[in-house]
Structures are given as C-alpha cells and as structure tokens.
From TrEMBL:
This is LysR family transcriptional regulator. PROSITE patterns: HTH_LYSR. Belongs to the LysR transcriptional regulatory family. GO terms for molecular function: DNA-binding transcription factor activity; sequence-specific DNA binding. It holds the Pfam family HTH_1. Keywords: DNA-binding, Transcription, Transcription regulation.
Length: 310
C-alpha cells in the first residue's frame, strides 16, 4: 500500500519545481532559482508528465509554454502549496517567544505614522521585538500567523479584543512648492483647489469645504486614491492639496513637510483600532503596545504632526 500511494502522488519537491518552471517558463531559470541544474528540472518534469499522463509543457523552438492541462494543473496545486506554506509558518510561530510580536498594520498607518514613531516604543526597557506586516483590507487572525493588527474601520472588529486608537479626521495639507507656484498661503486664498480626493470619503472635499464655510471655492480633482499613503505622496510631490490626518504629516523643516491650510478637521466616520485574539498567550505584551499606540497618537494629534520635534 505504501509503494502504491507513493507512486500515485508527486512529491512536494516536484510540485515546487513545477510551480517555479511554470512561472519562469524556463527550466534553466527555474533551476537557477531552486539550486538545480537544467537537466534535473527537465527530468523531474518528464517524470511528472509520465505520472499524470498529460503533457504539461509544450516545447516549441527552444521556447517553453504551458499546455492547457499544464495551466489547469498549476491552478489546482497553487492553493495546496499556499496552504502547506501557511501551515508550516503557523507551526514555526509556536516557537516564537512572547517578546516577539507580529503585527499586521493598515498600510497608510504603517508607513506614515507607525514606522517613524516605532523607535520610541522599541527604546523602552524590555520592549518586545515588533515585526510589521502592512495590509489592505480586513484581517483574519485564524488564517494568519499574526498576534495583533491595526485596522481602519467604521466599527470595532468582531470576535476579538481591541483598543480604539483614534478617530480618522482629516484636514487640508499642501507642499510649500505648490503654494508658492499658485501664490496662495491659506485655504481661503484658493479660487479653485487642485484636489487629491479619497475614494471612500463620500465626497470628502465638498463636505470639508461646507464644514469650514468655504463652499464657494471650486474643486479640480487631480487624482483619486483609496490609500491615504498615496494621497500623502501626491501632496509631498506638489501635485495637489490632500485631506490627511494631521498625525500622518511631517511639519516644520522636516523632509517631506507639508503646510496645513486650515485648523478644522472633518470626521470620516471611521477609526483606527488595535485588535488581537481574545485567547492570545501574548495578551500582556500586546496590550502594552496598544496602550503605547493610543497614548502616542493622542500626543501626535495634539501637536499636529507625526513625530516629536527635536
């Protein structure tokens, strides 16, 4: 029975070699990626085709192409290999000590606020090692080897513990170079605003202008993004005026500093939450990070910039 089962199924190594060859469409390149010779890759693929009794590759004029069966087989085994890699990583994570936290972080929050400020947390006595994994969209703890997450959402995530870090509130920011070019210094000075818009903001620019009593100002949308990170980079490049949380923005003479054009903020009806599985064995360490995030974000909002001056 053991010999029969072994003969009926390809090895994991063979499937990995096939996946690499299907991606590279070259036995030579696949071998270089895997530390194998071209002939070793070719032999494994010939044996795999013999086992499956179908041609996986078409060899035409020294060019390699996937056959229809090869493309189908690649799609069939892809989730198998992904699940195997995820299961291996998950088991390996059992050996990770409690002083290491793997945190999945909303991409804009990660790049614009957490990374510039994280050294302040890591400098504390007995601080854990924090590994960051930026994400876009929801986080599912059961399917990932993560200990905690920072999410941007309308309400607290379900089936986990959480701390509310801050509400998502935005105001207008622009690069000094753009303001000099247009000859303006305040939001009130604009006749029409070259606006960088937020797609999920439900008409954020008209709402903001109405909020501050400046609906008379026209809007020319120069770009529309789903990520605050991209809106920030557009503003830094001097391409338009962006609505951003003040704690995401460098001020003063810092590299990439933006000028705030109005003191009022508009609430988007969303918040940043720090959440973690209720049964986490690292609960105490996770909470320490969450409380630090909560405190530092309040300080950043109060000073109106993302990092401490000096």
């Amino acid at each position: 029975m053991k010999r029969s089962l072994r003969a009926a199924l390809p090895s994991i190594d063979t499937l990995i070699v096939f996946e690499q060859a299907a991606q590279a469409l070259s036995f030579t390149k696949a071998g270089a990626q895997l530390g194998l010779t071209q002939s070793a890759v070719s032999r494994q693929m010939i044996d795999l085709e013999a086992l499956l009794q179908v041609a996986l590759f078409a060899r035409e004029r020294q060019r390699l192409k996937l056959t229809e069966a090869g493309a189908e087989f690649r799609e069939l085994i892809r989730p198998v290999l992904q699940d195997l890699r995820a299961a291996t990583l998950r088991m390996q994570m059992h050996a990770v000590p409690n002083n290491v936290l793997n945190v999945s972080v909303a991409a804009s929050f990660c790049n614009l606020w957490l990374i510039p400020n994280l050294p302040g947390f890591c400098a504390q006595a007995n601080a854990p090692q924090v590994n960051l994994m930026p994400h876009v969209g929801p986080v599912v703890f059961g399917a990932n080897a993560i200990d905690a997450a920072v999410v941007n959402a309308e309400r607290p995530p379900e089936h986990c513990e959480y701390l509310k870090l801050c509400d998502l509130e935005i105001g207008p920011f622009a690069a000094p170079s753009l303001l000099r070019r247009l000859g303006v210094g305040r939001l009130e000075d604009f006749g029409r605003i070259p606006a960088v818009d937020i797609r999920e903001g439900n008409g954020a620019w008209p709402r903001y202008l109405a909020h501050v009593g400046l609906s008379r100002i026209g809007i020319d949308c120069v770009a529309s993004h789903s990520l605050l990170l991209l809106s920030h980079e557009m503003a830094v490049a001097g391409l338009g005026v962006a609505l951003l949380p003040p704690e995401f923005v460098a001020s003063g003479r810092a590299p990439g500093a933006l000028k705030r054009l109005h003191p009022a903020l508009l609430a988007l009806g969303r918040s940043y939450y720090f959440c973690w599985p209720a049964a986490s064995k690292k609960r105490e360490t996770i909470q320490a990070l969450g409380l630090w995030l909560q405190r530092e974000l309040q300080v950043a909002r109060a000073r109106g910039s993302r990092v401490r001056k000096g």
